[in-house]
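Appendix B. Chain record.
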Amino acid sequence: MLRWAMAEAGIPIFSNIAHIADREVADFAGLAELVEGARAPFVVRGLVADWPLVRAGLESAAKAREHLLAHARAMPFTVALGPPGHGGRMFYADDMQMNFREGTGKLADIFGGFDRYEGEDNPPTAYVPSVDMNRNFNGLTEANPSPVAQYKPRESIWIGNRTRIAAHNDFPDNLACCAVGRRRFTLFPPEQFENLYLGPVDNTPAGRAVSMVDFHQPDFTAHPRFEAALETALTTELEPGDAVFIPSMWWHHVEGLAPFNVLVNYWWRETPKWLGQPQDALNHAILAIRDLPPQDRAIWKQMFDHYVFEHGPNVTDHIPEGARGILDPLPPEGASRIRSFLLRALNQ
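Structure tokens predicted for this chain:
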């Protein structure tokens, strides 16, 4: 009941949440030792403090934008926009459509808007999400080197003013580096999804189902299980140069706390890149299995356990080697054959 009382008193939930553990590393090689096999989040202070982008941002937001523009390619960038009074929460409107609109423009033009509203108390919300650093910039990754380059990660940059991104999870491991401004991360273990009250899986702000709970004003009457989620929550605030490691499937609520914020993140997966996305399998299972009669669903649940989740020796030992097909570990060509088969089946 303490959480309920705090909410009614207007006390932020973040003030009563345990902090993500800080870990120390001497260099990027030391980081790799921490990451290997890690299944809990941790923070490394000052990990990328030497980046030119970080140093520019410590001078001013304008200097950080100059650094990014010096590397930006002349191509369209996507920007999400909310009007003054929007509050930075990139979420649903009352009709379950997005409460922001999207546009495209050159980065210089988008940054012109940041320049124009800098210093205002209630500027329009502007958010440039998940930009591919190698496709949209020349030399930015070389100037600000990846701490986890050995994993060949997907490298993305996120730029905005004060924003709130609802709790969601990602399949790959994630190293998120605060380059400019400040970020608050609030994390929950993977199994807490039921207590986060997830929204639709097909109508989402950015491709992943998000928590419907407003972390700034939680409604414990509408979302009573959220109190149980908070008992497992971890939080941290990152300053420029700090980084947080978020293991695969951990839920994370992300806030840009400064008038101008830049985050660089790295996603990578331990399994080969040619394997499929679990979310696609879940979507297909909803299509093909969820609405079957209960007795049929029970049988398919047993088959999924047998072939996917347990996958013990009794699945293949009775089949001659070389004749096990997709029941053997999948090489790239095997994964490609499954994709082709599924595409043909879904198009029938």
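Further analysis of this model is presented in Appendix C.
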